[in-house]
Each structure stands twice: as structure tokens, then as C-alpha cells.
Amino acid sequence: MPTWGRAQWSAVENDTLRLLQLFAEAAQCDRLNHVPVEMQAEVLCRGVKAAEKGITIATRLGDRALCAVFVIVLARGHLETSNWEEARRCYERALEIYRELAKPYPEIYKPSLPVVLHNLGAVLHHMNDVE
Fold it and tell me: Considering the entire predicted model, what is its pTM?
């Protein structure tokens, strides 16, 4: 009977497992109001780092949709620190990805476009850069 330790997993399987772990950490960027104030900076830092790692792995795997999800989570982290310019860049990147994905699969990805556009608009409004 074979034993199935992680050492026998493929790189893709290991990356997939790591993405699941990273998403749980990255999602904390969006849940800071559930964290004691004295811990928020540390939790946010971990969340941003996890989102960045998630983007790297999703890109390596060629999973554009998952990359967009991590980019949006990263944008939320930048919003929490009032880093408007980085949040704008993230939302613009996510918008670009979803537009590309919506061409062959409009029924799946087109509904995400208004949400990303709304968030990008809110960031631009906050930056007084609405044109």
C-alpha cells in the first residue's frame, strides 16, 4: 500500500496547497475589524505578504482568475494603509485580468467587472483623480 506524503506530490500540487494556505492569510486584509487594534498592523502585514506570494504562485501556475483574486485582496490591504496609489494599481491590474478573462468566458467573469470598476472609482475619488 503506497504512502502519500507531501514529498511525493508534484510541484503543482504543492503550489495548490500553498495557495489555499495563503488565501486564508491574505483574506485577513479584509477582516481587520475583527482583530484587536493592537494586532492589526501585524495581521495586515502578514496578509499583504500572503497576497503577494499568492499572486506569484498563481501567475506561475497560469491561473489568471486566482491571480486577480489575490490582486484584489492586496488592493484591500493597501486601502487599509491608505496607500491609494498601490490600491489603484492593483484594481487596474485586476480589471485588466478580468477583461481578458471575460472575452472567452463572459458569463463567468463579466459580473466581476462592475465590482472592480466601482472599487477603482472609489479609490480614484479618494485620490481626487476622477476623470
Answer: 0.86
